[in-house]
Model the fold of this input.
Amino acid sequence: MDSQGKPVGRLIKAPENFVDAAGVRQVFAEARSGRRDFIRQAFAAAGAAATAPLALAAADPVSADGGDPHILNLPAHSLGLGQPVATDGYGNPSKFEANVQRRRSPGLTQTTQASVSFAPLQSLFGIVTPSGLHFERHHQGWWDVDPSKHRLMINGSDANLVKTPRVFTMDELMRLPSVSRFHFIECGANTGMEWGNAAVPTCQYTHGMLSCSEFTGVPLRTLFELCGVDYKRGRFVLGEGADGSSMTRTLPMELVESGEVFVAYGQNGEMLRPENGYPLRLVVPGVQGVSWVKYLRRIEVGDKPYGSKDEVLHYADLMPDGRHRQYTSTQECKSVVTTPSGGQVLLDKGYYNITGLAWSGKGKVKRVDVSTDGGRNWRSARLETPLLSKCLSRFNLDWVWNGKPAMIQSRAMDDTGYVQPTYQQLRKVRGSRSIYHNNAVQTWLVQESGEIKNVQLA
Ligand SMILES: Nc1nc2c(c(=O)[nH]1)N[C@H]1C(S)=C(S)[C@@H](COP(=O)(O)O)O[C@H]1N2
Ligand SMILES: [Mo]
Done:
């Protein structure tokens, strides 16, 4: 439910005669082959007016006298002139999608500047997050920085580490050879409210500090070559943001040498959004969000880790023995079922497509298993293409709900062979009082009423 108590995502309704996956496949095959009467009969048999899925009901022209929905009465939008093309301006989603929004978690932060908004994962398809729905995490509010005044400086912590320190304008950066790559970004604190117990209702709040975009920019290695970086001594890199949060993070030089780290100005085919660091941010594939410094204004090459406030005070893992672990930057393999998920309602038993996202900061997702009985039995889901490294992957699995309580889980494995842990396994190593880097298997309880709840298994 959202803050107004409306269900989030889509209500799902299947006709009663959708009793098994084979039957559903037959219906779909008939529909594809053009035998529409078959599908019409299928719905009629199930009492179509009451039970047809929302999408079909909306497309069906209901006659003016409220009678048989299958009598063809053309709606206004099939008869008249539509809206004109835009002469200028930027396109918007349908007004019927107004409930698909990023949302703040009430009471989570004391201010709205040092805060976070969560992406509505339950309403998204495929792997790309629309830029206007990308999660936001600011430590000191966002800015719309003038790109003509923005600069990126590259220097060394001593005079010998960078031969020719330089200051780049945006125009200079955008003339250089660019790369475009799809990567996920996940805040290290994603799922952080769930360490002790199931705390929040929907996958927007459990997993929504996660987004995925096609980013465009210049490999940091290219800039370092232009500046003459001493790779022998300069084994660490500091990224610094231009906002008031003094956001600075250390990166190991190996990440830069691999060619994976880049300074990005593009996101999903256009310039970055202001909330996401316009006009320049660091992209550090596989590494937690905090290292993706926004409003990037300076990069320093150094010979040791910097131990900045966001590395020693925050983003450190509290271990069960009371000590803290630093620099655990790579986001380990994780997955979540996004539909059906907490806050959604199954209106009837029958066929559902279980769908979700899987990702790993170490490489590609190799396999996702899905359970509907709380982890006793598992089936392998279909992984959709593209299957890219350090990127979200989409999985799907057929499921027929028998109307009884069900516990839906997904468990991902990456191409290093690492398997996403259960809460029991994770807590054995990490305890239950941490904030960051919770990648445990998520459980959604489908109740007999069809309502779905966030639960954890003891
Ligand atoms: N300059 C600056 N960079 C920043 C932050 C910030 O507050 N200021 N927040 C960091 C954190 S903690 C995260 S999770 C990501 C969030 O990126 P997004 O807002 O584009 O989702 O940006 C990182 N980079
Ligand atoms: Mo973060």
About this structure: The pocket of molybdenum atom (ligand 2) is lined by residues 137, 187-189, 289-290 (CB under 6 Å). Residues 331-455 form a domain with the Immunoglobulin-like fold (CATH 2.60.40.650). The chain has eleven helices and 24 strands.
